[in-house]
C-alpha cells in the first residue's frame, strides 16, 4: 500500500503530525479517513475549523494555513506495527520538513508521536517547554483515534488551546 500525500507548504500556521496512515487512509489516499477516527469532529468542535470537514477534503486545510503529515508514511492497522527503524527514519525526515517549511506550531496528534519525535518520556499536554526545532512551537495533543479512552470533552479542550495560541502569533 502506498503512503498518502502530505499536505504541506512553507510558513504554515499549524502542522498536524500523526503516527502513520490507517489502512482506510491508505485505501482512500486521505488523512484520518477511518470512520472511527474523530479528528475532523475534534477540529471543528475545538474551533480550529469553521465547519466539519471530511477526510476527502483534507487538502482544503491548506487554505486555513494548516498542513498534514505523519512521522511514518507506511499505512498499518495499528501504530504498534511501526518499527523502531521506521520511527528513526521518520523522525529525521520530519525534522528536515520542519526546518525547511518553518511551521509556526506543530500539533502532534498523539502523545506517543511526540515522544518518538522528541525522545522525551514524560511530557504534558499542550505547548512543550522546549521545541525540537528552534523557532517552532511543539504542541502535544491526544490521539484522535476511537481507541483513546479519554473523554471527548477533555480532548476537545486540549485542542481548543491551539486557536488561542495561533491568535497570539498573528
From TrEMBL:
Name of protein: Mismatch-specific DNA-glycosylase
Domain of life: Bacteria
InterPro entries: MUG/TDG, Uracil-DNA_glycosylase-like, Uracil-DNA_glycosylase-like_sf
Domain (Uracil-DNA glycosylase-like): residue spans on this chain: 8-152
Gene Ontology molecular function terms on file: hydrolase activity, acting on glycosyl bonds
EC number: 3.2.2.-
Pfam families documented for this protein: UDG
Keyword Chloroplast applies: no
Keywords carried by this UniProt record: DNA damage, DNA repair, Glycosidase, Hydrolase
Gene source species: Cytobacillus pseudoceanisediminis
SUPFAM superfamilies the UniProt entry points to: Uracil-DNA glycosylase-like (SSF52141)
